[in-house]
Amino acid sequence: MSASADLIRSAERAILAEIAYRRPDASVGICALVPLVHDEEVVFALTYAARPLAEALIASSSAAIVLSEPRLAFPGWAPATAAVRLRVEADRDGAMFTAELLEQELRKHPPSRKYTDSLVARREHWWYLPRLLVRVSAIDVGAIPARTLPTDGVVAWDDGGAIRATVAGVEDWEAGQVRLSWPVEASPPEQRRVATLYRHDFAVPDLEPRCEQTLEGELRGSQLTVQRRRGRAGPPERSRLRERVLETWSLSRACRRELALARHGRTAIG
Predict the structure, then answer these.
(1) What span, in angstroms and rounded, lies between the C-alpha atoms of 90 and 82?
(2) Which of 5, 30, 125, 175 is the most buried (most CB within 10 A)?
(3) Would you place residue 1 in the very low, low, confident or very high pLDDT band (cuts 50, 70, 90)?
(4) Which residues pair with 211 in a beta bridge?
């Protein structure tokens, strides 16, 4: 099996993937997305509410994906990582997503089922079907271990313009100088690099609610000097009914707004 085939196999069986990318301000962003597969490529099918993220991803001169989450993965899954190129395809009517990718998303992502698991639900939540399809082309596929401890994270850094990423053990997420334990498959940068450390958690088996924690700063060797913190560690707290209703309303409003902007040519992505 080729290295690219290993990546596709991992993505087919994974529930979530981490993607690291270079932001316009030269910092490193990381987020967790649902990996789908189409035409022998990994695809992330973002709702139109995530249009700013899609634009940041395609503007990135370098990116990396990490498939390190073992929970809920299908049999035969193995972790993988890859340096990648990204491109975005607008599926504004949702036809391609519905015909080619929806079945995968329903299998992997339980929160989508409340919007799309029947024809009636799809008509009512029509705004959920249009997607921005982020297609991933692998450049260099590598091996990594799975994250097995709640304190494990994904660390990504800008290695002279190329984004590198791997899994790392973390001694203390609250420290100002965070010590990382590196896997045998990776080597820490010898020079000081802009970097981000990221972890996320979710309710099993529903995937909701989710929470994430991000530390940004400078990485040298096995030590991250933290400059910014966002989010919190899990386990995530269950949302109340009112909060879930408001989340759906907010998502619907954002999708409709972005679709309207796209129809009038006011966004960089159609």
Answers:
(1) 24
(2) 30
(3) very low
(4) 201
